[in-house]
Amino acid sequence: MITLSCETPGKFEFKESTLPKPKKGYALLKIKRIGICGTDYHAFEGTQPFFNYPRILGHEIAAEIAGLETEQEFRIGEKVTINPYFSCGQCIACRNAKPNCCEHISVFGVHEDGGMQEYISVPESALIHGQGLSFDELALVEPLAIGAHGIRLSELKTGEFVLILGAGPIGLGTASLAQIAGGEVIVADYNTNRLDFCRNQLDISHTINLSETDMYTSLKEITHGDMPTVIIDCTGNQEAINGALKFLAHGGKLILIGLQKKEINISHPEFHKREATLKSSRNALSDDFSHVINCISKGLIHPLDFISHRVAFESLPGNFEKLLNSQQSVIKAMVEFD
User: Fold this and answer.
1) Each residue's pLDDT tens digit, 52-62
2) C-alpha torsion sign, points 245, 246, 252, 258
3) Distance between CA atoms of 82 and 62, rounded to whole angstroms?
4) Residue 252 in 3-state DSSP?
5) Could you report the per-residue pLDDT of 207-244, keeping only the tens digit for each?
6) Is 172 helix (H, G, I), strand (E, B) or coil?
7) Which of 102, 138, 150, 290 could make an S-S bridge to 62, C-beta 3.0–4.6 Å?
8) 29 DSSP β-pair partners
9) Reduced to 3 states, what is the DSSP secondary structure of residue 260?
């Protein structure tokens, strides 16, 4: 089979490999779709934390089961996605039902080789039933689950103003799930195309174009002077994270989905006087995957609207850098293996 490895930042290389050997408790999957996410882009750029090279990227997966030890809960030929966060089951986080932040976590496509290959072998425990979803929809379950987990941590209430910083794929998914939770959603970004997407595709009425408008003034107007009680960073940008506190209402919560390599610098007096809550949101839980699949099945969220670009697996190296260019107006790029 063919694999695609990111050998060093900026360099992909196709390689020939043998099919994974059958292992007890593992399933063989034939890859059908891989969604490209910020982790993959950052790995290619050399800015992704917790990362070593060479690495086969890809953890937003839709696949068909090609081999199983026994056909009990799953069957050969079934459409599936996977939970790509492989936890130890023994550490304090796992014992406290938080395997998403396991001390020894291995994320598929980050800490170990991922899905940019024709076949993969994963633990059967990682499989998630397709439940009638298409391959395109299944490949978007994981990134949407990231947003679902952030919303869960925010404990967002109906009618509460929530500011989503960043209108990339994770931010857009988080905004959609915040709407489903009943929040009054505000999205801020510099990218006009993505803000148009928010209004036209997601029906989000409050958007702030940071290249044209002052954030503080806009938020004061939108929230009738109160400021948002929840801010969720989906940028992974140090300046955005460090500056977010001044836009937070007193008693509010700042949730960090975005990740960057450097230190967080927050004014203690500003943080303290708000009695603010700061939470990091890492990966997602099984319940987040189930919630997303349920929302898709009910038509509450339409993941196909997010797919703006498609590229064949064999053409990916020649097109990957183009996808990095914001002028390409990429929302979500999907790699096709058919």
Assistant:
1) 899 999 999 99
2) negative
3) 8
4) coil
5) 999 999 999 999 999 999 999 999 999 999 999 999 99
6) helix
7) 138
8) 65, 120
9) coil
Residue 327 has pLDDT above 60, yes or no: no
Token pair recorded at residue 274: 């708000």
What residue has token string 């064949």?
Answer: 312
Q: Which residues contact 98 (CB under 8 A, 6 or more apart)?
A: 285
Which one-letter amino acid corresponds to residue 128? I
Gap between the Cα atoms of 157 and 161, Å rounded: 9
Counting other chains too, the contacts that 17-25 makes at CB distance below 8 Å and 24 or more residues apart are: 17/117, 19/119, 20/119, 20/120, 20/121, 21/121, 22/67, 22/69, 23/121, 24/69, 25/69, 25/123, 25/124, 25/125
**Helix or strand or coil: residue 115?**
coil
Instruction: Decide: 74 and 68 in contact? Cβ < 8 Å.
Output: yes
Block residue for tokens 């009618």: 159
DSSP 3-state assignment of 55? strand
**252 neighbors 223 (Cβ within 8 angstroms):** no
Give the residue carrying structure tokens 């595709």: 201
- Whole-angstrom Cα distance, residue 253 to residue 276? 6
| Separation between Cα atoms, residue 147 and residue 174, nearest integer Å | 4
Tokens of 12: 């992909």
Cβ atoms 230, 160 nearer than 8 A: yes
Q: CB neighbours of 41 closer than 8 A, spacing ≥ 6?
A: 323, 324
Span 309-323, pLDDT tens digits? 999 999 999 999 889
What is the spatial distance between Cα 279 and Cα 291, in angstroms, rounded to a whole number?
21
Query: Do residues 172 and 198 touch, judged by C-beta distance below 8 A?
Result: yes
**pLDDT tens-digit map of 89-110:** 999 999 999 999 999 999 999 9
The sign of the CA dihedral 277, 168, 60, 185 is positive
Q: Please list the residues that pair with 30 across neighbouring strands.
A: 64, 119
Structure-block tokens of residue 44: 């290619």
Measured from the Cβ of residue 159, the count of other Cβ atoms closer than 10 Å reads: 8
DSSP 3-state of 309:
strand
